[in-house]
Specification:
homodimer; 146 residues; alpha+beta; Arc Repressor Mutant, subunit A; three-stranded antiparallel β-sheet; two-stranded antiparallel sheet; 6 helices; 22% strand; DNA-binding
DNA sequence: CTGCTAATTGCAAATCATTTGCATTTGTAT
DNA sequence: ATACAAATGCAAATGATTTGCAATTAGCAG
């Protein structure tokens, strides 16, 4: 049972977030929405090569999307930043190959990890480690911010 | 009930992993072992300033430790790499403030996340998101490697 | 304790992904 | 169609991390 990839309405998404609809941004969002796993910048550049897009422009677009909460930037190891569309079903869980760096998104949430972990490890052969981080605001900052 | 920090025997650890016992490495491991949370390179540099250690040396030591499995490199957001000692009780879970970037290690494992999540969010005020990644080896690579 | 050898370090230069300034182009509202 | 702000391309800047190489140091043998 493979996960069905829903193509998104990139233009609507851009309008919703008050971005101008440019070819690069549209194709960027569509590319992300059609990928079964988070994409590193290099792969995005390849996918967008028809547009002869400047790296700077791609970075600017990605950063703007992250800022707007449309896209999630994922960093599993030091050097590898990957981007993925933020979606309902997407709870930001991933599994990464420590050999070839392949990444898969995992379609379940923390709440059910326990039961799924076993299946998961069979699919992926072997899990060596995992990393979990919560992001929030600590009390000190909440105080400081008001 | 605060977590007790156990100072480690840095010299023994170095010997065990066939590293030479140099002042920098000893202090580096001790610093990491006494920190309640993962430390970014910048803070490590500050802590080691008595030794006037060259950044290159610190990076080399950290990379060697990570390679040896003594230290874990944690990257929560794009630019911030942090290092922490790998310890029995340390299951590589963290909570990060999205305002000041403070990081706390979380003393429980995935298996009990469900029950702990509530307490956790009270302590930390508010959790906006979380990120979980498993690292392992995919089938393709297992095949390729033999 | 002394000397030997390989590992470690400091320094300076190189690297590489990402960011930035600025002039030009493009999208959108009027 | 026009105007203005936003987006882009290009080249240069940035900044953390890495690397080459010569000098130093730790560990070991005698």
């Amino acid at each position: 049972m493979k996960k069905q990839l829903q193509p998104i309405d990139a233009e609507a998404l851009l309008v919703e977030h008050e971005f101008k609809k440019t070819p690069l941004r549209i194709m960027l969002l569509e590319t992300l929405s059609l990928s079964p796993s988070p994409l590193p910048v290099l792969k995005l550049q390849r996918k967008l090569k028809k547009l002869a897009a400047d790296p700077a422009t791609i970075y600017r677009a990605l950063n703007a999307f992250v800022e707007a909460g449309i896209v999630n930037a994922l960093t599993v190891d030091k050097t590898k930043v990957m981007y993925e569309l933020v979606q309902e079903k997407n709870h930001l869980h991933h599994i990464v190959c420590n050999s070839c760096s392949a990444v898969e998104s995992i379609p379940f949430c923390v709440k059910t990890i326990d039961q799924q972990a076993v299946k998961l490890s069979r699919q992926f052969n072997k899990i060596h480690s995992h990393q979990l981080a919560f992001v929030g605001t600590c009390r000190k900052c909440v105080r400081a911010l008001r």
